[in-house]
Model the fold of this input.
Amino acid sequence: MSEAILETQSITMRFGGLTAVDNFNLSIGKNDLVGVIGPNGAGKTTIFNMITGIYEPTEGKVLLGGKNISGLRPAFITQQGIARTFQNIRLFKDLTVLDNIRLAGHFRVDYGLLSSIFRTKKFHAEEERLKNEAIEFLKIFGLENKMDHLAKNLPYGEQRRLEIARALATKPDVLLLDEPAAGMNPNETKDLTELIRWVRDKFQIAILLIEHDMRLVMDVCEQIYVVDHGELIAKGGPKEIQNDPKVIEAYLGTEQA
Ligand SMILES: Nc1ncnc2c1ncn2[C@@H]1O[C@H](COP(=O)(O)OP(=O)(O)OP(=O)(O)O)[C@@H](O)[C@H]1O
Done:
């Protein structure tokens, strides 16, 4: 594994008396594709929420490129290089496909307040650059012929693709995907599997995903972390994980419950 870009050091999240995540350690290299799996309520989303600044860990640290980012605001964490998608797709549904990408590009642009108030030459040049960049993104994702459509009118699979494109438009070092296959049919999931691999190779970034679709996880993830009741119970490659008795028990246990 390459040098770590994202690390969590013993992060713990307590909600009153409930420990949702307990002492969770993770380390992801610059170009790794890693999954977090576990039964419902295991703590997966809470881990994402701590990494992206929605929650500040009760204990422990989140490091991005070796820098402590725990407790920073979500928008600032995006600027630092972590982008995410959500279990329930969150797009600007009443904006066009192009504007969804264009807005994301602003996250890492700074033309200064005065420049944007007075609409200076620099402002217009920057806007033009962002628009062209957004169109390039749409071409890469095969959405350029839909750039004037409202996001809400795209089919589900394309909305998911747009959400991933928008996250990438913030130029992240790490992309977090929260259940990207949720609500997809088998064909869409197959396309998504290829898309995830392709994104990692094309953009040379790290990807961390939460997913219930085991086929997708086993197909794309090189390293898998398994959590149950807030604790890490196993970590390893797909084969190791599938044969791990603790993992099998965690899943069978919940199915029988
Ligand atoms: N804001 C909160 N306040 C109180 N309890 C919470 C909060 N967020 C999560 N929890 C609890 O923490 C535990 C872990 O929840 P989390 O959503 O992280 O699990 P998950 O693994 O993502 O589940 P799923 O696969 O169902 O999405 C659950 O018991 C949940 O009820």
Q: What stands out?
A: The chain has two domains: 4-81+172-256, 94-158. The first helix runs from residue 44 to 51.
